[in-house]
């Protein structure tokens, strides 16, 4: 090249110094064929004829002819495409040198055509793409040599600069080489992060300075290599989980998760529990691979309410992170309430006041919340209530009056249940004895007693037993019987009966006589052994029962020792003539006093009969003259008692029409004279006595009536005066006049229906029998 340029320089010099004839043109490369280069004729001062005549032509040593001469027009034209880069490469300036040769005369002219560069070449890279593998740990300032670009153009059209985009991590650095070229380097400005961008694509652009500007690009692909620059990271610093107590082993409690941005083993995470001091590791285990925490022990809320598990995650590169897993244990109602008896009494007096505290109870439930909220109650229908004062303290107090006699013992069941679902409960039974207080008086089995005793009893006979019961207990129920002081007919009752203090047996003290006393009343007191003692009393009525201890007594006809009394029967008497009537009484009562009459012996049994009921002696056939004057009848009077008692009476009957006849018949009766002497006197006396007694009886009856009317209360007393009673049949209703019946009274009590039967008088009040005529 040097030689070429030197030659060129010499030619130019020649041009100027020797020939001084020549022209120079400048044209850009790549002009189209036929383009005008220059008007040579004009420039050389030649006429076109001369060119033609001189046969002007171009002389060049080069093989290729880029320029041609048009003789007719006298111009130079582009004959071939001129590529400066092919012609001169990088040499500047680039010119074509040739001569125009003329003949006739021969002359020549040097012509220089300078070819100027146009920007027809872009910078180019040898390869369109290059790849790098760079570790993310590469430090800033690390250099990476890049390929250069080439631009065939020259000057401004040549490669001017490089651009690298994007510029996030790398910058370009150019080094000037000795040969004037530039080395291109890429320098790491900012560390790479695989985790952010695993592949980086950069575009390197080479730009020339032409107009228009041209450029070439190359793709740089960087693969970032991983290093373990990331520790595992838990998704949360603190995890929370709950587990119900008594959950079975194997229950998954929670899953912790950590992530590691690194790749491969740098990002492989292993989980572990790091607690050392507490027993968390006995309770939980973690799956090394997936961070699942499961239960391996028994959780008991009452022992620990929560666990703090420290979990570590580590990658294979040894980087770690840790987190906390807080496991709250949820309570399950698994504890029964506990009932503690703080203090209790086993015995309480039945007169205890209301609200007396019997037992104090404390309740405990280990569970919490509703599971530990306890309510207690007691069995119903007991006179106690459960009062709660402060939390979980209860006292059992009396709620109503106690009565040992109704219930002497209570089994009080206290049941406590919590409010968990399902609820748990426990119970305790308290046995409470009620102690006795003397609050019950003895009570007799009956409101009043009536007893019967047959008269003529042996003294000391036990009549019957009164019994009183006392509802109290023991000494308070020990009953003693006491005879209350009173008097019967003015005599202390204690002379009639006695009461056995222990047994309540009532004994007769004396022998009773029904005919003297029919009944009597007294009171017996029952008293218990309490302090003070309580008592009650009952009325006892003893009724004496009759015994057939009295034989009938014949009132008429009067039986005298020697005197002779006879009934007269006229010989004219008809059948059924009432001769006389045997009158007898029996002081006993009832059947014992029911009398019957029978004829026992008779002089002539065919002549007389005796009425069985009424004792009337009547004739049963016509009396004849043949019948003896003197008839003697023996009548037996029997009562109806068991055994029966009887009396006999002899009735003398005189069958005669006149008294002297009778006398003559009865002269053998020795004592008859004396009777006759006093006959008149006795008759008068008897009449007076009977009249007096009648008036007395009337007075007594009226007095009694008045007394009854004044005293509303009616009591029957056996010792009232008794009026004798003769049944109506005793009176001579046939009006024969032979029997005096002035003393036939009848007293009927109407005030007492039970006693409305008529009472019989005592025979003793009427001992006035000697009124009969004596013979
Ligand atoms: C109370 O319980 C005891 C023992 O179980 C029993 O013997 C007694 O009869 C019970 N008392 C009442 C009043 O139920
Ligand atoms: C007997 O009891 C009655 C009440 O039942 C009482 O009024 C009376 O005073 C008592 N009599 C005696 C002597 O205690």
From TrEMBL:
CDD domains: Cadherin_repeat. InterPro entries: Cadherin-like_dom (IPR002126), Cadherin-like_sf (IPR015919), Cadherin_C (IPR032455), Cadherin_CS (IPR020894), Cadherin_N (IPR013164), Protocadherin/Cadherin-CA (IPR050174). GO terms for cellular component: plasma membrane. It is found in: Cell membrane. Residues 26-125, 126-234, 235-339, 340-444, 445-554, 569-666 form the Cadherin domain. It is a single-pass type I membrane protein. PANTHER family: CADHERIN-87A, PROTOCADHERIN 1 GAMMA 11 PRECURSOR-RELATED. This is Cadherin domain-containing protein. It comes from Dicentrarchus labrax.
């Amino acid at each position: 090249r040097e030689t070429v340029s030197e030659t060129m320089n010499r030619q130019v010099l020649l041009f100027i110094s020797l020939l001084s004839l020549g022209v120079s043109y400048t044209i850009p490369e790549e002009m189209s064929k036929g383009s005008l280069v220059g008007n040579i004729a004009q420039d050389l001062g030649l006429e076109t004829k001369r060119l033609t005549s001189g046969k002007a032509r171009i002389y060049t040593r080069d093989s290729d002819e880029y320029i041609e001469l048009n003789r007719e027009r006298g111009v130079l034209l582009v004959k071939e495409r001129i590529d400066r880069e092919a012609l001169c490469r990088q040499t500047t300036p680039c010119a074509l040198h040739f001569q125009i040769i003329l003949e006739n005369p021969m002359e020549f002219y040097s012509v220089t055509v300078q070819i100027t560069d146009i920007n027809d070449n872009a910078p180019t890279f040898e390869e369109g793409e290059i790849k790098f593998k760079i570790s993310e740990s590469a430090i800033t300032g690390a250099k990476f040599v890049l390929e250069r670009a080439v631009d065939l153009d020259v000057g401004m059209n040549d490669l001017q600069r490089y651009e690298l985009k994007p510029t996030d991590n790398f910058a370009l650095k150019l080094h000037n080489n000795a040969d004037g070229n530039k080395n291109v380097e890429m320098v790491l400005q900012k560390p790479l992060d695989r985790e952010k961008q695993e592949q980086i694509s950069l575009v390197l652009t080479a730009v020339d300075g032409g107009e228009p500007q041209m450029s070439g690009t190359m793709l740089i692909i960087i693969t970032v290599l991983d290093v373990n620059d990331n520790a595992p990271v838990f998704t949360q610093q603190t995890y929370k989980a709950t587990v119900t107590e008594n959950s079975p082993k194997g229950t998954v409690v929670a899953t912790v998760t950590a992530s590691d941005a690194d790749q491969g083993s740098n990002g492989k995470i292993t989980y572990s529990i790091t607690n050392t001091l507490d027993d968390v590791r006995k309770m939980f285990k973690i799956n090394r691979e997936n961070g699942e925490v499961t239960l391996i022990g028994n959780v008991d809320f009452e022992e620990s309410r929560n666990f703090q598990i420290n979990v570590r995650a580590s990658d294979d590169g040894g980087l770690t992170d840790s987190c906390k897993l807080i496991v709250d244990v949820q309570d399950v109602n698994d504890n029964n309430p506990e009932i503690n008896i703080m203090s209790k009494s086993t015995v309480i007096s039945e007169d205890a006041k209301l609200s007396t505290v019997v037992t104090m109870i404390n309740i405990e439930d280990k569970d919490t919340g509703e599971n530990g909220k306890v309510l207690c109650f007691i069995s119903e229908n007991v006179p106690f209530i459960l009062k709660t004062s402060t939390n979980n303290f209860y006292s059992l107090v009396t709620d109503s009056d106690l009565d040992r006699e109704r219930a002497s013992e209570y089994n009080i069941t206290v049941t406590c249940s919590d409010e968990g679902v399902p609820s748990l409960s426990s119970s305790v039974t308290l046995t409470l004895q009620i102690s006795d207080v003397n609050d019950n008086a003895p009570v007799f089995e009956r409101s009043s007693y009536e007893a019967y005793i047959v008269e003529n009893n042996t003294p000391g006979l036990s009549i019957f037993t009164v019994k009183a019961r006392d509802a109290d207990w023991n000494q308070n129920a020990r009953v003693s019987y006491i005879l209350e002081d009173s008097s019967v007919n003015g005599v202390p009752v204690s002379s009639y009966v006695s009461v056995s203090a222990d047994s309540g047996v009532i004994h007769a003290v004396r022998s009773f006589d029904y005919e003297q006393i029919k009944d009597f009343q007294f009171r017996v007191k029952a008293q218990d052994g309490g302090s003070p003692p309580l008592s009650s009393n009952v009325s006892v009525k003893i009724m004496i029962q009759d015994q057939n201890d009295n034989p009938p007594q014949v009132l008429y006809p009067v039986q005298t020792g020697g005197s002779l009394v006879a009934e007269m029967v006229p010989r004219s008497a008809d059948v059924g003539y009432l001769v006389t009537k045997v009158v007898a009484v029996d002081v006993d009562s009832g059947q014992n006093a029911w009398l019957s009459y029978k004829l026992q012996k008779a002089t002539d049994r065919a002549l007389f009969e005796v009425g069985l009921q009424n004792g009337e002696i009547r004739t049963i056939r016509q009396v004849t003259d043949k019948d003896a004057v003197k008839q003697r009848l023996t009548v037996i009077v029997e009562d109806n008692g068991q055994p029966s008692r009887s009396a006999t009476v002899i009735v003398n009957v005189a069958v005669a029409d006149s008294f002297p006849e009778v006398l003559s018949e009865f002269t053998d009766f020795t004592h008859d004279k004396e009777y006759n002497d006093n006959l008149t006197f006795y008759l008068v006396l008897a009449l007076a006595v009977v009249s007096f007694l009648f008036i007395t009886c009337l007075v007594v009856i009226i007095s009694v009536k008045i007394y009854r009317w004044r005293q509303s209360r009616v009591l029957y007393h056996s010792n009232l005066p008794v009026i004798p009673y003769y049944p109506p049949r005793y009176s001579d209703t046939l009006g024969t006049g032979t029997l005096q019946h002035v003393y036939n009274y009848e007293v009927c009590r109407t005030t007492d229906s039970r006693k409305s039967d008529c009472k019989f008088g005592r025979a003793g009040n009427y001992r006035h029998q000697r009124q009969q005529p004596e013979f």
